[in-house]
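Check out a protein:
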Amino acid sequence: MNKQTFIQGAMILMVAGIVNRVLGFIPRILLPRIIGAEGVGLYQLGYPFFIVLVTIISGGIPLAVAKLVAEAESAGQPERSVSILRTSLIFTVSAGILFTILSIIGAPWVTQYVLTDPRVYQTFLAMSPMIIIVAVSSVYRGYFQGKQDMIPSAISSIMETIARIVCVLWFSYLLLPMGIAYAAAGAMLGVVAGEIVGMVVILWQYSRLRRKERQHPPSASHATPSTTSNNNTLFMPLFRRIMNIAIPVTGGRLVGSLSYLLESITTAQSLAIAGVATAIATTQYGALQGMVIPLLLLPGALTSSLAISLVPSLAEAQAQGDMRTIHLRLHQSLRLALVSGAPFAALMYVLAEPICMFIYNDSEIAGMLKVMAPFALFLYVQAPLQATLQALDKPGRALINTLVGAVIKISLIFYLASNPDFAIYGAIIALIVNMIIVTVLHGYSVARILKFRIPFLDILKVISVMVIMAGVGKYVFYEIVISSSLGIQLTAASVISGTLYLLLAGLMGLIDFSDLKRVPFFGKFLR
């Protein structure tokens, strides 16, 4: 097992995340062409329920496992790490089986009375087996992250994505003759198949690790009789310790998941009040959640990787009382999140129409993307800030911040989206307000707890470089004719403006080349 540094771990997950996001766009591009925006809407309407159920089961368990395993490994207690894993699995498997059964039994009532489109029933049934699969996989990923070995999670996620791409497109195409509802259910079955592959891969990685540990046990790991014979008595103390960490984190994530669920329900109901027909409302919601927001989340490959790597790194630093490392890691995370997200936000704002036309062959959704793009920076910074609060045993504060944002968001959706003058753009405004409020509250909480200074100078530098890049990208695309091909013209504008962005970011000190030298594979060329 190879333990990586914070930057190496983040970069490994980032590479895997970028590969997953790029590959993941294949079904997002092709699926609307197979089942249409209405089919994507049916697919998206059922998904929030799945997110809520998985969050209840395992929302905070992976983070708790990662944190406790990091502490155990730091203390030289590898067998305690295994006990933490087993205890977590007993809970997640039991809860997963229970909620899978409840999901199948409750599917007719939920799709008939809670959601606005009964055609979601088939998709709802198709996603039910995924509950226990995702719960188990997340525990193993938390275990490897606690050991600060990000490679198994990266491999598992890539294999899962590849399997999902093939199966989503294949199954939806096979079931399309039966109708859009069955085609959407076929797409969800493809997601289930991908999750199964991901779980098998992570289990295989774990079995390899255990074989190596048995063949080469650490010299200082001879267990005392109390630690080997009293595993049954250790279960409850371990379970309580896991729950003490997991419950507040689960609460915070559950607020987010319930917010997502209520968002889908409230948006559909509000659009109905505004006089939008059910099929059109489903289509608009599918375009927003299945096409526009995935584009905004593309830079999230790095920010989510930073958040995942940040938890064990900060937990280890906190256990050692190393406040300097905590500040350093947090500053690195915020700077990288801003620098990596800004160029995407800039181009998505000035080139929204050609981007949507090239990727989705649909320029009508460009207005949604253009409105949301400038505010996406708040979303990119939010992930490392929330991870910091969770790693420092302040998940309750993250929960309150998320709850405040969720209440405001749902209220605004109901008020604005039910107004015919706003309609779907009312929901978009509510989402933007939520991004800003939650991120600002997280930033204030972190600054107060750690006496940490938010890097406002870095923020101003990023915005300045971002504005210059946006202007250059727009000028190149619209004023300099390089090719009649939309794809080539868009690529040229992105490459030229992106290169300028990197040069300016380097000159302003936003890119730390000492960090780049520690990046796996790529870093050796800079040394």
The chain has 20 helices and no strands. The two ends are 25 Å apart (CA to CA). The first helix runs from residue 6 to 58. Confidence is low (pLDDT under 50) at residues 220-233, 518-523.
